[in-house]
Amino acid sequence: MTRFILRFSPGLAGILLARVAETVFLTDHGEEILNNCAKNVDLNSELLNYRAAVHIRELDWMSPWPPRVSPGETPLHQRYTWTFSEVEEVQGASVIVAADVIYSDDLTDAFFGVLERLMSLGSEKVLYLALEKRYNFSLSDLDVAANGYSHFCSYLRDEKDCEEVKNGCLPCFVGKVIDLTQIPKYVKEYERGNDVEIWQIRYEKRSQFRDSCDNET
Ligand SMILES: C[S@@+](CC[C@H](N)C(=O)[O-])C[C@H]1O[C@@H](n2cnc3c(N)ncnc32)[C@H](O)[C@@H]1O
To answer: Which of 58, 90, 122, 153 has the smallest count of CB within 10 Å of its CB?
Structure first.
């Protein structure tokens, strides 16, 4: 059973996860959206009968991990601020979930910056990321292109490629697309379309045990 789950962006999936985990952290950036999330969590608590402790916390991908912490208990006027022990809990999380966060290259860069730090600290984690490819007219291609998606893919390697990067001496993100036909669809009227994907992403840390790595620059 998963103990701690970190959910980037506080949508429905994060709230549903509170039915199966021990602790869930729902994060986003900005007071208004965090207030909205808190309201959704409260409104659905009876219906969904959470088993988890649900924490709503501010996490700006543009700032480095770990976030600023408040000493001791979180005061009421800083209700979305992390405590030191919560940061430690999140570093011990096993599952991270994110949905629809790939749409701007700057944000994608910031997002992977936070992931790199977070996934290299504490326990081994796996990220499940759902996305829908967004198409725009690209002046450089003079055509419609999913450039945000290409930028996202540029962060990922498959297992074999990752092993080959300097013989496994450099850390890398290993990504695998999940076969959605294997995931049952419960909402019958909903069409998934071909541009929806779910990725399973792990972070392979630099091997500490390969002598050859020590000679790499
Ligand atoms: C397109 S929405 C996706 C919402 C998501 N599907 C959900 O279930 O909540 C993108 C989300 O990224 C968040 N976001 C944008 N910039 C951010 C940043 N710098 N740090 C953290 N989250 C950010 C937005 O507030 C928004 O919730």
So the answer is: 153
Ligand 1 centre and the CA of 11: distance in Å? 9
**CB proximity list for 196: less than 8 A, separation 6 or greater:** 130, 131, 132, 180
Q: Which amino acid is at 108?
A: T
Taking the whole predicted model, whether its pTM rises above 0.85 is answered as: yes
Written as six digits, the tokens of 55 are 């924490």
62: domain CATH number is 3.40.50.150
Can you tell me whether residue 99 is helix, strand or coil?
Answer: strand
- Domains held by the chain: number: 1
Give, for all 217 residues of the chain, the pLDDT tens digit: 456 667 666 678 888 888 888 899 999 999 999 999 999 999 988 888 888 889 999 999 999 999 989 876 555 558 899 999 999 999 999 999 999 999 999 999 999 999 999 999 999 999 999 999 999 888 888 889 888 999 999 999 998 888 887 676 888 999 999 999 998 888 888 888 899 999 999 999 866 555 667 655 4
Question: Using a 6 Å cutoff on CB, does residue 58 contact ligand 1?
Answer: no
Tell me which residue range forms the domain holding 172.
4-215
- CB of 107 within 6 A of ligand 1: the answer is yes
